[in-house]
Amino acid sequence: MTQTYDVAIIGAGVVGCAIARRLTLDGARVVVLEKGADILDGASKANSAILHTGFDAPEGSVELACIQEGHREYETLRAGMNLPLDRCGALVLAWTKEQEARLPALIAHARANGVDDVVPLGRAEVLALEPNLNSTLRAGFRVPGESLVDPWSAPHGYLLHALLNGADLERSCEVQGGTFDGDRWTLATSKGPVAARHVVNAAGLYGDRIDQMLLGEAHFTIRPRKGQFVVYDKRAARLARHILLPVPTDKTKGIVVCRTIWGNLLVGPTAEDQDDRETAALDAPTLKMLDAKGAEILPALADEEVTTIYAGLRPASEFKDYQLRTHEGRNMITVGGIRSTGLSAALGLAAHVGRTLAGEYQALPDPTIPRMAMLAEDQTRDWQLPGNDGVLCHCEKVTFREARAALTGPLAPQSFAGFKRRTRATMGRCQGFYCGQAVQDLLDSEGPGHD
Amino acid sequence: MTEFDVIIIGAGPAGLSAATELKRLGVARVLVLERERDAGGIPRHCLHSPYGMREWHRVMFGPAYARRLVDEAREAGAEIRCQTTVTALRPGGEVEVSSPDGVHILTGRAVLLATGARETPRAARLVGGTKPGGVMNTATLQGFATFSGGLPFKRPVIVGTELVSFSALVTCLTHGARPSAMIESGARPTARAVMALAPRLMGVPLRFGTTITAIHGRTRVEAVTLDTPEGAQDIQCDGVVFTGGFRPENALLRNSPLAVDAGSLGPRIDQYGRLSDPAYFAAGNVLHAIETAGWCWNEGRRVARTIDAALRGALPPLGSTLITAKADTDAIKFALPQVLSASDPSVAPAFDRMQLRLSRAYRGDIVMGSTTHRVESRPERRILLPLPRVTEPGP
Fold first, then answer.
1. Which range has the worst mean pLDDT, B41-50, B84-93, B172-181, B268-277?
2. Burial class (CB in 10 A: 0-12, 13-18, 19+), B330
3. Tell me: domain B123-242, CATH 3.90.1140.10, correct?
4. Dist. CA B335–CA B353, nearest whole Å
5. Most exposed: A319, B141, B149, B350, by fewest CB within 10 Å?
6. What's the rounded Cα separation, in Å, for the pair B279 and B108?
């Protein structure tokens, strides 16, 4: 053991990455411990890639506060870090009389949550905004602030911001136990002991297990909730400008239809409770249901081709709200039960943790800010610029220069999946038919090899 | 902006044979654009034969065949630019391209679309389970066999029994992998029945009436679940090769103003291989996924002649008569050409017969215009019928 960190963060999902950034900028010496081969390998690897406003979050909840604070901070930091934001707005749509009857309450709820720019819309107004919608819809309202982001470049950027300013990252590093001596923690990990004054548990799907392991008890239990998605070809993105949301139920926001920042169109997620914390399995009947659901909302989607399918796990718990807890006298903070909306709330959760540890450190005077690769479809991409070394992945137009840049630096990928998240190579319509072997060759010769 | 007589998109058999032919016909500036690092198209990584019988009356393997196509086009005087990706097709033969120098615009008096076809990947087949490494199409498998040290698995399952499926099987067996099974949803192989003997002779079980419902494994494939006539069954394997299910590589086309055929998913053409914008032509598998390399080579050559006629102003104007082929069921996947323009005795049509493809087996009549043909065929086989006689509306 060579040094004692100020803070050890367990878990490099979007929440852990944002916390690492915040605490590093606040002046703490931070280490991030990730059990996966690469970061974002748990709950954060699959989501609907939306930056929410919190219009439908529970009133007065921690979730609402974190979403709103996180959303604001994203808007201020994104230009410096070259992170995309498509402020396309969402439409909440009522298809039945019962759903229509709930709209006024949802609008009132949004306003009570401080989202006061929502606009009630009649059927004709909705169809004027989105002419491809199934015309049987009854009414809706618009939430202008709901936005699309890159769900991977953002957390990569957060963590890189930390790493460039002195934080350390340990991957394939599983926390297996720990002791607190009243002043500092000694964590036993698969890579040896790590010492830190404070521990932040951002272990996502294993958040309760980490609390149990380090504190002897957990005040919540993770109940993984699976979401499956179907992604359509970029051509389908012309069918909807807004994020199309159904009237939510108690359990879920429901099945969303929206574009992605990369110019595809997605339909999902489902909400399926399961015990397995590792495997988010796809199943054909559910995928067909999503395909049919998408075509019900946007009839023209029936003629569009599927580009990919994916599934993720939400670290939900028995509680509706996030489970934030400062364990007094134990120098430990738990950030758990981020059941959904973690991408939107991550920076807000990080600010919360930062305030909890306020006064302990001296903020960095002039931190280095990373500039991330821009992969958004509506922005200038590398293939449009001179010196790009040619295109590696044709469907997503990933250049050799982008690919090689992703393979260097302190956050170079440790897995094929990690490389895909950083570049989008092989993630387009041909799914590697043309470039699969060339990508693998590049990784074998210049990267980490296959996972 | 740089101007060419003909810009050919895609340096596979159709595009290269068209380039060679155009140069032989005396067309001055012929440019072939290829997005890969090397020209030659799919045959570059097809380590099997036979190739070249139609072209040069000899039996060749894919890579040698591809090299000869490239050499012939270069020797004829065509310029081939690799690592050049066409990113948009604009009206009148203007194309946007990306190269290592960035984006620029090129114009051709004519533009030939020869972008070929690809297989349907796992995702579009909505196969459940996890997403580990080791799941790929045949082309990627062949890429590993040809360009990498070896295959990324030892015991894959091969999905499909098209011709290409048996090529995947042979590639596995000649590169140190022994497939654990080859599966087919139908009761018979899609390719000719004699092919069904091949896997048996090679000790690979061929299972009919069987589909793949799930893939298991976190980072590498560990097993698959099959739906078989005897019920669900898990088998151990370390990879999955999804073969066939060919479809045109049509992303450029679908994002352009050019008309697309809903059946073939390729461009709509007349008998001269001309698209809805008469500056554009097409040949090869972008029209009809999928035909042999030799077929595409021949089509490229023939369309080159109609392009030459177009450049000389000798091609009859683009017609508006749509041909429809009707069967008693919806078995027809596509029929091309889709448009008949006026004929001219001085210009031979590039497509002098109708090419039809069925999506499932059919025995019955196919009606085109005023002619009726008796057809009996299995799906995905080449069907050739005479062009219907059509009279253009008079003045």
1. B41-50
2. exposed
3. no
4. 10
5. B149
6. 8
Q: Look at residue A450 and tell me whether its pLDDT is greater than 50.
A: no
pLDDT tens, residue by residue, B129-139: 999 999 999 99
User: What ipTM was predicted for this assembly?
Assistant: 0.94
User: Can you read off the two tokens belonging to residue B342?
Assistant: 């006026």
Residue B391 predicted with pLDDT over 80: no
pLDDT (average), residues A322-342: 96
Contact check, Cβ <8 Å, A433/B122: no
Q: Which CATH class is domain A86-147+223-314?
A: alpha beta
Query: In this predicted structure, what is the pLDDT of residue B47?
Result: 84
Whole-angstrom distance, CA of residue B387 vs CA of residue B357: 15
Q: For the domain made up of B2-118+247-318, give the CATH fold.
A: FAD/NAD(P)-binding domain (3.50.50)
User: A125-137, pLDDT tens digit by residue?
Assistant: 999 999 999 999 9
Residue-level pLDDT at B390: 62
- Report the C-alpha dihedral over residues A261, A267, A272, A274, rounded to 10 degrees: -50
Distance, in Å, from the CA atom of B21 to the CA atom of B113, rounded to the nearest integer, reads 15
Render pLDDT for A232-258 as a digit per residue (tens, 0 to 9): 999 999 999 999 999 987 767 789 999
Angle of CA points A161, A164, A166, to nearest 5°: 110
Q: Has residue A451 got a pLDDT over 50?
A: no
Q: Where are the domains of chain A?
A: 1-85+148-221+318-377, 86-147+223-314, 382-446
Instruction: Show me where the domains of chain B are located.
Output: 2-118+247-318, 123-242
CATH code that applies to domain A1-85+148-221+318-377: 3.50.50.60
DSSP annotation string for B204-240: --EESS-EEEEEE-SSB--EEEEEETTEEEEEE-SEE
Task: Report CB contact under 8 Å: A440, B37.
Answer: no
- What is the per-residue pLDDT for A355? 97
Reported as a pLDDT band with limits 50, 70 and 90, residue B48 is: confident
Confirm or reject contact between A404 and chain B (CB < 8 A): no
What's the distance, CA A380 to chain centroid?
23
Element housing B120 (H / E): none
Choose from A291, A401, A440 for mutation: most chain B CBs within 10 A.
A440
Give chain B's contact residues with A (Cβ, < 8 Å): 35-37, 83, 85, 87, 98-103, 118-119, 121-124, 126-131, 133, 136-137, 139-140, 143-144, 147-148, 152, 213-214, 218-219, 249, 251, 254-255
User: Who's near A400: CB < 8 A, 6+ residues apart?
Assistant: A388, A389, A390, A391, A392, A442
Average pLDDT over residues A115-120: 98
Average pLDDT in the A336-341 region? 93
Question: In whole angstroms, what is the distance from residue B69 CA to residue B46 CA?
Answer: 14
- Using CA coordinates, name the residue in chain A closest to B116: A434
